[in-house]
Amino acid sequence: MRLTIVGGGGFRVPLVYRALLDGPDGTQRGVVREVTLYDTDRRRLSVVAGILARLAEDRSAPPRVRVAESLDDALRGADFVFSAVRAGGTAGRVRDERIPLAEGVLGQETVGAGGVLYALRSVPVGVEIAERVAALAPGAWVINFTNPAGMVTQAMADVLEPHGLAHRVIGICDSPVGLVRRAARAAGTDPSAVTYDYVGLNHLGWLRRLEAGGRDLLPGLLADPAALAGFEEGRLFGPEWLSALGSLPNEYLHYYYFRRETLASVRSADETRGEFLDAQQGTFFAEAAAHPERSLELWERTRLRREETYMAESRAATGGWERDSCDLDGGGYDRVALALMRAIASGERTRLILNVRGGATLPALGPDAVVETVCEVDADGARPLPCAPLGEAELGLVLQMKAVERATVEAALTGSRAAALRALALHPLVDSPAVASRILDAAGV
User: Fold this and answer.
1) Which part of the chain is the Glycosyl hydrolase family 4 C-terminal domain (predicted)?
2) pLDDT exceeding 70 applies to what percent of the chain?
């Protein structure tokens, strides 16, 4: 199998390659024998290729790494296409966050006004990739990690629908798998031995059942303040709210449930997350390019600091606690991608939380709406499993956010100012159409 990574100069690309090297089957099963990298930033691409070469040292038959000169060159002959593009770079993220904050509303890469602004750039790029896949690699499976992952996956699937290829676009995220893993450990069981019910949209979902040995462990966990205090989501949301809610929310729902506290924390910080990453990655890539012999060491050090500071503003709003050491290994999206590729390539069934067209999963959204839910994966791709209906409050939020997503995709693909205004003004974290209009003006939309 050949894997193409579009956005091959991305900082987290070495995680994917390392997962290929360290996975339970690795290259011995032939899941991926060649990795092709493509990126418009040639300096970053050179640095990342060098890190992959160092990761492969002393490994038996590691996947070959090839650097492509163009997107079309990268896509031809691909079996899997991993899309992990940051349109506008980290400098774009800085603007996405600062412009809304100047208007007193949250700016974040995938949530709130910042997420909408980012999607206006990333959706057209995702659509271009999907169109070239349809033309040059119609048999390929597209694994999307380009953010905002739900919106970009939706747009890519819609573009591939006329070609009969919409089912071949699958979005991945590391937040749900991390939630399940942490909740299982807190409930005193092996994360690999649980089944679960999780549904929603990307960065807007809820874990509603956690079963082991035929017993649902979630009610007991939600009723145990000490256990809840032992993992990230328990500390973020607090035992009182989780007990009242009756489920475990995705960590990004902290921006919705505790919007006042989180916004105050973000506004009081010395720098935004985007500013931190912009400075950190600028320093890393400059140092790694100047000292290629140390690139792997520099990457490991930078990656660890990146993970330690993940969602720091939400943690600051709830006491300023540090992340657990077991949550600093890179997030997990690399393992989700490898498990997905392995299941499709081998035909061995597995269950993963993925972003796919929902079918009958959430009937109110329609069958073509991309949702994030538990899927069964085999050689035919990913199929959402039946799940219990969402409660009224959760469904209401999902419906509102899907309307925001659809308006954002329309604006991104047509340039419609009216659609962009609807997307921002309808977002529950933007409190006024007038504010939405000024944000668009400042962003040049």
Assistant:
1) 198-430
2) 93
